[in-house]
Design goal:
The protein is α/β, with parallel strands linked by helices. The chain is built from 5 helices and 6 strands, in the order βαβαβααβαββ. A 6-stranded parallel beta sheet has the order 3-2-1-4-5-6, with helices on both faces.
Length: about 150
């Protein structure tokens, strides 16, 4: 199984007052348990990132991941600035499967957006988990987690 993570508000917190590439932000911060879960999952699974971020290309994103201490756990970054595609475009999903040489059913998307992460993955034949730490979509029919630790319990 290959884990495909959203970036903003799934692995790293988006600060509305900050502008430009995240690696230039004053204090880029991880979402709760992101570092721990990536370290655990990366021991046995490939972990990748898929983001619609417009201010950063893959190199900029890698720099932000490095500042946060999680770059070593993310093998491949798929982003709008490099592919010219955004979630929920099926072509973005196809580009990921092609680059990773995998079938959709070998991917599990973890992200905080019901449309751009969860529905996009499911509609393209992948597994999906909605990361919903605030419980905004509780009882809405999504396969969801409220804590990233649920991906790999100790």
């Amino acid at each position: 199984m290959i884990y495909l993570f959203d970036w903003g508000n799934t692995l790293m917190k988006v600060e509305p007052h900050e502008k430009g590439p995240m690696y230039l932000w004053k204090n880029p911060m991880l979402c709760e348990h992101a570092g721990v879960i990536l370290e655990r999952l990366s021991r046995t699974h490939r972990c990748c990132l898929a983001t619609n971020a417009e201010d950063s290309d893959a190199s900029d994103i890698r720099k932000a991941l490095e500042r946060a201490g999680i770059a070593d756990y993310i093998t491949t970054i798929f982003c709008y600035r490099n592919l010219g595609l955004k979630k929920p475009d099926p072509a973005f999903f196809k580009a990921i499967c092609t680059a990773l040489s995998c079938l959709p059913e070998n991917l599990i998307m973890v992200g905080d957006d019901p449309v751009n992460d969860y529905a996009w993955a499911r509609e393209n034949g992948a597994w999906a988990l909605l990361y919903d730490p605030l419980g905004r979509f509780h009882d809405k029919g999504f396969d969801s987690i409220s804590d990233l630790m649920e991906l790999c319990p100790a």
